[in-house]
Every structure is written in structure tokens, then in C-alpha cells.
Amino acid sequence: MDIKLLRAFVTLAQQGRYHSAAEILCLTQPALTKQIQTLEHLAGITLFQRGRQGAKLTVAGRQLCFRACALLQQYDEFREYMRKVQNGSAGRLALGFGISSFQLAPAQVTAFRGLFPHVEVYLNDIPSDVQCRMLLDGQLQAGFIRLPAPEPLKVEVLMEERLVLVIPPELSADPANLRAILESHQLLQITAHRGHGLVVQTACFLRENKLNARAVSVADDIQTLLALVAAGNGVALLPAGVSHILPAGLKLMQVEGEYARWLIGIAWNPDIQDVLRDSFVKIVTAAAEP
């Protein structure tokens, strides 16, 4: 059913005269009459009683008019919401981030919400490789990820991240002790399916710097890994961003060498048109400029 027929019906019901209703709708009276007749034909009932006093709703017409008014209001609200989504002032923004952007991502969400208060923003902790797949599939609009990213994703570099060794309080954080600590303590790692990029980074770091370690995958999340280190189960090579959630007593040892550093950036799929996402990316990249 054409929404124009319902609008003609409601307008005529409100005005009570064809002349007045036709003017509001920018129609001729014959055109308005034809629309009302078409609606009556589709409904199979008479909607108006016509006479010298104009057009008066029948009993059936009054029953339908209330619902028609509600439907038109919903339709108008939908069109207004669609307009806001199109121009990027409303809608939903789905974002991903990780431990390396633990402070950066929420701060940028706060800045974005200040400018776009009617947008619903969802920020979830998701591994970088999973974020990339979600970006390609259109399930995620933008993500703070470990670089590089696969094509055709587009990225902007935001910061540099580095590896640190998380150790219990009784150990010295002197980098000169790195080899000895790794040889005498288990190296606790996050599982590959939850932190593929970090597992690969750690393996490359150990290999290229000729370090031996008894690596054991013990947890699906970094918080559990930190708790195990705090309980004396071993040590862990993690991104420096872990400092924001470090349990009391644990120490961070900075490490140097090949594969000790990598880049973090924001990524998005340029093949998907998204005004809302573009506004967010613009805010993030502007904040990252020196």
C-alpha cells in the first residue's frame, strides 16, 4: 500500500474538507478524491460520508484513522532517523580494540560521543586478526589493531607498541637479567586462537634474539595470565599496554632487540560506505597528528 494513500486519508480526516486537504497535500481535488477512492477500494469499506458539510469519517473510517496516524508517525520518524544515519549524526558504531589501545580507544570514543551524542557506540576487546576478518565481512566498522592489516583494509598508524616481560616482585627488572629469567621460569602465554599476533610476535622475538624459553599456553585472556604470574607460576611477554591493568606487586621489564616493537593503527574497510565510521576515523587520526 502506498504511504501517500494513508497520508491523504489522515489529512482529509483532520481537515474535513477536500479543498483544504488538497491544498496541504499539494494536490488537485480530483487527484485527492481518486486517492481516497483507491484506498476505499483496497480496504473494501467506505471511509468518509460526503455531504455539504464536507467529508466526515464513517465508523469504520474512525477505527482505521487512529492506526493510520500512528503508522504515519512511525514512517516519518523512520525517514528522519534514516536521514540522520545517512549524514552520520545518528546510528550505531561497532568498534574493536585490544590491550595496546586500552587507553587510546576509550578516550577516542569519549571524544566522538561528545560530538555525536545520539550515536550508539559499542567497543569490544577483540584480537586483531579477528577484527580484520570482521572488518572485511562488514561486522565491524573500525578497529584498533596490530599492523600490518590485510588488503583491502585501509589503516592509519597511531602509535608504537613494545614487548615487556611481566615478572613477580621478587625478581629484578634489570634487562640484563632477561636471558637468565627466561631460562629459569616458565614463559606463560595466551592461547593462539585468542592472541595469534602476540604469540607469533613472541616466537619471532625469542628466535631472532636467540633466547631459550619454556613457553606454555595457559590462558585465553591477559587478566588470567597476569594472575598466574602474580601467583608465581612463571613470567609473561606482553604488550606494554598491560601496564594499565597490572596487578599490584608485579613488575615490567623492558626488552630490546628484533621484533620487540610493532605499530598499532586504526583500520577500516574502504569498500563499505559509512559516513558514521568516517567521522570517527577523522577524529582519531586528527588526535594522532603531532
UniProtKB/TrEMBL annotation:
Keywords: DNA-binding, Transcription, Transcription regulation. GO terms for cellular component: protein-DNA complex. It comes from the Bacteria. GO terms for molecular function: DNA binding; DNA-binding transcription factor activity. SUPFAM superfamilies: Periplasmic binding protein-like II, Winged helix' DNA-binding domain. Residues 1-58 form the HTH lysR-type domain. Belongs to the LysR transcriptional regulatory family. This is LysR family transcriptional regulator. It comes from Acerihabitans arboris.
